[in-house]
Specification:
Length: 306
Amino acid sequence: MARQRARAIVGIPRAALHRALRAALPPESLVIGTEATGLDLSDPARPRVTRDGAPLEADLVVAADGVNSRLRAALFPGHPGPAYSGSTVLRAITEHPVELRTDFELSWGRGVEFGRIAFADGRAEWHAVVKTAAGVRHCDPLGAVRRRFGDWHDPVPALLAATRPADVLHHDVHELAVPLPSYTAGRVALLGDAAHAMTPNLGQGACQALEDAVVLAAALAAEPTPEAALARYDAERRPRSQAVARAARRAGRMGHQLTDPLAVAVRDPSDPVRPGQARRPAPPRLDAPAAHPSRLVRVYSVIPGG
């Protein structure tokens, strides 16, 4: 039973995840609608964040400002930053429930991927990944997906039919192809995409950020000083999350990024001709490094709200 739970795939709209996390916090502990515009590390023991023009002193700063993190660039000026992965993704949540046989499905074609995750209310999140140049955009994104995937196997047409055009999001996929040498600097911890932005081929971007948060909180509760806690956080999270990032990159190379007909035929020996044949590939083995013995938890958190 424990092994089954560890392998479960749970689809959660990000808006619902945010509501659940906020409900567990005291109302006064969260400030929204404001922007942190600066970080002062002149006093190593008391970092200060500039917010609305006023400094806010802290014992610890957690930088979770995403793949294009300004704080990461300031703390590691020699790092090249995010790089385009070679793929773009269009995705949405269906407007109404769709009849699905399984909670998750992934299909590969030549240079493309289509996947979907079921929600508890019957709706589903779908994503279409295409190997293409960066910056390509469509005046009708949903129409572009229908032209590319509309004749694929069920339930792909039904998912697209249940989607409103205005709900489709389109983003180029960037990653930290060059790993960071550390997830901490002084009393600042990088977390999530700011620390280890990865390709979405294993559905682990948000999941690894959640693991970051849990490990960081546990380290702060157990260690005598913030410095000791941050050293433990870096030692536990950096090897594991960077291993997951490497595995995600490998999965993409063997999945939707394959375009050579011979390579695709080797990958899909059962049906090398039919486009859109459903594939349910087993993900690469992702045993956790010894520094962090917990299993990989796959909780797919998707961006579209509602």
